[in-house]
């Protein structure tokens, strides 16, 4: 099957061809025709399967061929795409812009961590598609700068991640403001009972599509574990990078402080690196990601905020410098490589403190991961395990961007919002 077989317009096919694509991925081949038929959809797809184009392409097709939005609805958004993080909002918006460049479709990303000025301006001028994180969208709703009464198509992308981050209440508030008659699309790596409860009254006779086994890493990713003492991980990582000539490596740590410390240590060893986590400003995070994609950096050291949503073409290496506390996060981390048919390598540096975490991951995967030891880095059997300090999941973040807008918030905004709300700024 080719993209030309899916009934997409000449303008959209032109944009696809300009990106060098001819053949849709399995999720695209299944989802695009169903969405274009107007069906509600529940799609189980891991990251790296091409799911973003699986919903952006048919949405662009539907909106561009419907004339209803060109008059009274022109200044009301017609499609809402909800995503868990601002990084994913930027990437989905980029996909909308890329594939819709030859159409008269306007879109804008709405996310926290930046001033509201440009977002307010875009909404005032009128957009067809909004790509938003729940928290910042609620800011606009409460300031009455956005009207969701004209939404025709709703997308909940990475729904499981949004629930994990505590957005359930925010999502319910947003859903209550949408028209009852609309097309709804839900994309998730897993479908928990909580997700099924969320969509029970949302989806109308949905079609289910599944292209990946639950909690299954991409088949193209080779996985290995290096046993090493906790205090020698940095030296082993540097040696692996040098010995194997790794030129682009995404490294995961548990904490922001750990990401900064490791990035600094790599830089001192002559390895170009940067840290990516929630304490960085949006401009710092975007610059680090752009430099990493352009190979100006060899290593990007990230916390789990980067575990989902980062779209890096043909990323060859992912390293778990520290194993995640939640086994499912391991899959999402290593899913940054081996995407859309390319091969990749996932390496985990495991000390004695993490043996239980490793067993939990292997139990979830239902297989053992290959174990390796590098000469000179053999673990010392005299070292005893220490408790792993769990990172804080809810951090109070100073929301400075509201001070930048000329639109004052209502008096009720003086009350602090629940910690789940703060997640949109992380």
Structure at a glance:
With 426 residues, this protein is an alpha/beta fold.
Give keywords.
426 residues; seven-stranded parallel sheet; 15% strand; Rossmann fold; alpha/beta; 14 strands
Explain the overall architecture:
With 426 residues, this protein is α/β, with parallel strands linked by helices. It folds into two domains: 3-210, Rossmann fold (3-Layer(aba) Sandwich), CATH 3.40.50.300; 221-372, P-loop containing nucleotide triphosphate hydrolases (Rossmann fold). Helix content is 35%, strand content 15%. It has 15 helices and 14 strands. The protein has helices spanning 10-18, 26-36, 51-65, 86-99, 117-125, 134-142, 159-164, 168-175, 193-199, 233-244, 256-268, 282-293, 327-334, 355-365, 419-422, and strands at residues 41-44, 79-82, 107-110, 129-132, 153-157, 183-188, 207-210, 221-227, 249-252, 273-276, 299-302, 317-320, 344-350, 370-372. A seven-stranded parallel β-sheet has the order 3-4-2-5-6-1-7, sandwiched between helices. It has a seven-stranded parallel β-sheet with strand order 10-11-9-12-13-8-14, with helices on both faces. Strand 12, helix 13 (327-334) and strand 13 (344-350) form a beta-alpha-beta unit. Helix 2 (26-36) packs parallel to helix 3, helix 3 (51-65) crosses helix 4 and helix 6 crosses helix 8. The radius of gyration is 22 Å and the shape is elongated.
């Amino acid at each position: 099957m080719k993209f030309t077989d899916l009934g997409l317009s000449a303008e959209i096919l032109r944009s696809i061809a300009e990106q060098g694509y001819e053949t849709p991925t399995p999720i695209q081949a299944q989802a695009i025709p169903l969405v274009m038929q107007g069906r509600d959809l529940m799609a189980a797809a891991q990251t790296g399967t091409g799911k973003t184009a699986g919903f952006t392409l048919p949405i662009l097709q539907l909106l561009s061929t419907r004339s209803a939005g060109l008059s009274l609805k022109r200044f009301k958004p017609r499609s809402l795409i909800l995503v868990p993080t601002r990084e994913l909002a930027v990437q989905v918006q980029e996909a909308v812009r890329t594939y819709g460049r030859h159409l008269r479709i306007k879109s804008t990303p709405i996310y926290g961590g930046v001033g509201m000025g440009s977002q307010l301006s875009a909404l005032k001028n009128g957009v067809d598609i909004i790509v938003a994180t729940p928290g910042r969208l609620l800011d606009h709703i409460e300031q009455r700068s956005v009207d969701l009464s004209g939404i025709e198509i709703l997308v909940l992308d990475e729904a499981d991640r949004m629930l994990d981050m505590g957005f359930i209440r925010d999502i319910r508030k947003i859903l209550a403001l949408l028209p009852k008659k609309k097309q709804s699309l839900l994309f998730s790596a897993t479908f928990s009972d909580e997700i099924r409860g969320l969509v029970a009254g949302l989806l109308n006779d949905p079609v289910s599509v599944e292209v990946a086994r639950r909690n299954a890493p991409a088949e193209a990713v080779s996985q290995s574990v290096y046993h090493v003492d906790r205090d020698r991980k940095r030296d082993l990582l540097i040696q692996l990078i040098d010995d194997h000539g790794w030129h682009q490596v995404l490294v995961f740590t548990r904490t922001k402080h750990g990401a900064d410390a490791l990035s600094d240590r790599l830089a001192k060893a002559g390895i170009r690196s940067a840290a990516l986590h929630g304490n960085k400003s949006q401009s710092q995070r975007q610059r680090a990601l752009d430099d990493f994609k352009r190979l100006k950096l060899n290593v990007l050291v990230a916390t789990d905020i980067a575990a989902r949503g980062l779209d890096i073409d043909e990323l060859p290496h992912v390293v778990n410098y520290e194993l995640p506390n939640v086994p499912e996060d391991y899959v999402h981390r290593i899913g940054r490589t081996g995407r859309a048919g390319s091969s990749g390598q996932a390496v985990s540096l495991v000390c004695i403190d993490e043996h239980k975490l490793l067993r939990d991951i292997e139990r979830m995967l239902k297989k053992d991961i290959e174990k390796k030891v590098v000469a000179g880095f053999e673990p010392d059997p005299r070292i005893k395990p220490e408790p792993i300090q769990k990172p804080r999941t809810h951090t109070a973040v100073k929301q400075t961007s509201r001070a930048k807008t000329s639109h004052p918030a209502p008096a009720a905004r003086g009350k602090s919002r629940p910690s789940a709300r703060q997640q949109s700024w992380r």
